[in-house]
Amino acid sequence: LLAFTERESAVRTYKVERILQLRFLDEAYGPDPEFSIDRYFGNAWLMIRGDQLHHVKIRFLKKVAGNVDEICWHKTQRTSYEGDGSLIFEVEVDGLNEISWWILGYGDQAQVLEPPELRDLIAEHARRMLSCYDSRSESEIREEVGAHARSSTASK
């Protein structure tokens, strides 16, 4: 549900299931003729629009490439196959949080190529996930993940 809130003087997105009570008013409200849903969501991955537009480039390995390619995930997406069967997926998105959550769902079958901020965000998520399951200290994990990232970058 999109609705204007006087408290914030802005349109906000509300999940209907979270509304606990309603109060009916005698006043009638109509849609704002100046409001544009396309402008409101911009290039958000799904619903959460960030404050900066990013060019995102991801390599999906052959195992999941077809599954990723058969769905239109975003209005700006472009895809191309590499000789090894992997898929290069490119998209322009406002904000990186939502798309990072989507990428994480593909685990080791997805590698962020651009932008560096998204690579760092994914690496940080992965470090925190690993620390939930690993008995080593967080600093040991951080060092190992960092060494792996450096060797992956050097081999390109």
What does this structure look like?
By secondary structure, the chain is an alpha+beta fold. It has two domains: 39 residues, no CATH class; 114 residues, Alpha-Beta Plaits. 36% of the residues lie in helices and 21% in strands. The protein is built from five helices and six strands, in the order E-E-H-E-H-E-E-H-E-H-H. The strands form two sheets. It has a four-stranded antiparallel beta sheet with strand order 4-5-3-6. The chain has a two-stranded antiparallel sheet with strand order 1-2. Helix 3 crosses helix 4 and helix 4 packs across helix 5. The longest helix is centred in the last third of the chain and has 18 residues. The model has no long low-confidence stretch (mean pLDDT 84).
Instruction: Indicate the proportion of strand residues.
Output: 15-25%
**Helix and strand run:** EEHEHEEHEHH
| Broad CATH class of the largest domain | Alpha Beta
How many helical elements?
5
Spatial sequence of strands, sheet with the most strands: 4-5-3-6
Give the strand tally: 6
Per the CATH scheme, the topology name of the largest domain is Alpha-Beta Plaits
Output the structural class. Answer: alpha+beta
Q: What is the compact description of this entry?
A:
By secondary structure, this protein is α+β, with helices and mostly antiparallel strands. The chain is built from five helices and six strands; from the N terminus they run E-E-H-E-H-E-E-H-E-H-H. The protein has helices at residues 37-41, 62-69, 97-104, 116-133, 138-154; strands at 2-5, 10-13, 53-60, 78-81, 87-94, 110-114.
